[in-house]
Write a structure and sequence with these properties.
This protein has seven helices and two strands. It is mostly helical. Helix 2 packs across helix 6, helix 3 packs across helix 6 and helix 4 crosses helix 5. It is globular.
Length: 165
């Protein structure tokens, strides 16, 4: 006996392109994107409270990366790889960060095309405040789940990331 179409679950296309209630679509990429947006808003909230209103969450992650790597040369391609973002996106982000005075691009003698990314003193100060915002966000998110759920969520996210790289 053939299964009738009405008995089948919604396809991804049906879910994505149809007017659906606010909590749908229940597909993993859409839910991850929504959670990511909510996390960014939470980071921005804490950042405002910590006095770093003009630093986006992505700027904060890049500042943290540059801070942690300050003992070695870091180039744009390193940021692209570390955050799995495209060259054009990184270019735009770095231009804005440079304009705000958080980083400088410094030429390297061996290749005039390459520019080393250097964290400025202003960038290091912003880094300290944004790290506080990240910790506050992490504590808030962690409080929503049990210890076991947090461990499982991290395990699954790391598995997804490794499988997609």
């Amino acid at each position: 006996m053939a299964t009738q179409k009405k008995d089948l679950p919604l396809s991804v296309e049906d879910t994505l392109f149809k007017k659906v209630p606010k909590d749908l679509p229940q597909v993993i990429p859409a839910q991850i994107r929504r959670v990511n947006n909510l996390i960014s808003r939470r980071v921005n909230h804490y950042s405002r409270l910590n006095g770093v209103e003009d630093v986006t969450a992505m700027h904060g992650w890049i500042l943290a990366y540059l801070y942690e790597c300050r003992d070695r040369e870091v180039f744009q391609r390193d940021v692209e790889r570390a955050f799995s973002i495209t060259r054009s996106t990184v270019t735009n982000i770095l231009q804005l960060m440079e304009k705000k005075g958080y980083i400088r691009r410094v030429g390297v003698p061996q290749d005039a095309r390459l520019k080393r990314l250097v964290l400025t003193e202003e960038g290091a100060k912003a880094h300290q405040q944004i790290i506080l915002s990240f910790r506050q966000t992490d504590q808030f998110i962690s409080s929503l789940l049990t210890e076991e759920e947090n461990a499982e969520l991290l395990r699954l996210l790391n598995k997804l990331r490794a499988g997609m790289e």
